[in-house]
């Protein structure tokens, strides 16, 4: 499965309703993206900027997107879901993916929903991010009935893009695409029901109860949700930080998002490596290796002897990687991380290093995957790095395991591969076909 493929849609059971969700990345933290009025987790990947935005988040987190019940690929229901039912769906998704605590990233209508979840389950929310949101729907319009009627009149035509994303509204292809997205996301009847329910939203009373560190983000020219509502939202949440951005787009993934992504990463992780402009993106083959039973061996032969053996291994690794024109990124204590500009050389390097290590009494397992990586000074990041690590985790002692994309790229290079089945790799979408390499 190539790194460029989109995440697989799965389902979480919330009561008797199936809620569709997708995950991207395998970072140490979880970010649950709580959508606005409507969504469609698969078709939204067709919208410019959507996939790239979430892939950037996935360089430091496991990112979860979902369709609220009654919308997109989730089960249709007879009535509009209450806020309480909607936060139950978030909890069901977290339970399904084994997430004990997460950052909630609410967008538009998803902001009051995220606030309610954070106040109700403070132990399950580490951070709260609110983009283009509000606390009380009545402040959106003096004539809510007219606003809803206008929404229904133009639903499925793409006309709403002129308000939601002025930067793209002059492009007829963009309008047609947005029209299709609306039709797939929800029917006019479903939008009417949810809009009437949303008109009653008022979470002002619970804002002082939010305990999670909160970041409120808003674009200055947002015509759908005026920035004053974002400021009001931030002012009512204890110690919330408010940041405004230039532009008019209501969707967070449209427009210039570099600074926005950096602010999110810094808020969640304490640094902003992934959104920095000082790294390059390149296609590379990533190799991870691991010494099998290193802890047991260290205990058996003693620290001093083990250190000498590790030094011999590291020297072998340096020499072998250099021979095959690779780059040693770092040693990992009991293994290495390296990159190559050719998948064939990467596989041969792994096979050679495995054989050499075996001769000095250190059985290795290795995993390789080819994909786009981010060069961050002397380190690397990106989904391809996570994928290679997960492939290695499936490898047996004295085995070099590769993803299907590598077997496709080295066809005709004289390497041999044996099928090792289809696997789910933790934090990565879909099932991955893996192969054991041999010369």
Would you summarize the structure shown here?
It contains 14 helices and 16 strands. It has helices spanning 50-57, 83-97, 110-120, 144-154, 161-164, 172-185, 188-198, 227-236, 258-269, 294-301, 303-323, 343-359, 383-393, 404-409, and strands spanning 10-14, 17-24, 29-34, 61-66, 102-107, 125-131, 214-219, 241-245, 280-291, 327-331, 336-340, 364-376, 379-381, 399-403, 416-424, 431-438.
Which stretches are low in confidence, meaning pLDDT under 50 for 5 or more residues running?
A: 274-279
Distance between the termini: 23 Å
The proportion of residues in beta strands is 15-25%
Mean pLDDT: 89
The biggest beta sheet, please? 8 strands, mixed
Question: Could you give the order of the helices and strands?
Answer: EEEHEHEHEHHHHEHEHEHHEEHEEHEHEE
> Count the helices. How many?
14
Rough outline: elongated
Strand order of the largest sheet: 1-2-4-3-5-6-7-8
* Fraction in helix: 25-40%
Structural class: alpha/beta
Number of beta strands: 16
Which radius of gyration do the C-alpha atoms yield?
25 Å
Molecular structure report:
This protein is α/β, with parallel strands linked by helices and 439 residues long. 36% of the residues lie in helices and 25% in strands. Strands 1-2-4-3-5-6-7-8 form an eight-stranded mixed beta sheet, sandwiched between helices. Strands 9, 10, 11, 12, 13, 14, 15 and 16 form an eight-stranded mixed beta sheet that branches. A hairpin with a 2-residue loop joins strand 1 and strand 2. Helix 4 packs antiparallel against helix 7. The radius of gyration is 25 Å and the shape is elongated. About 1% of the residues have low confidence.
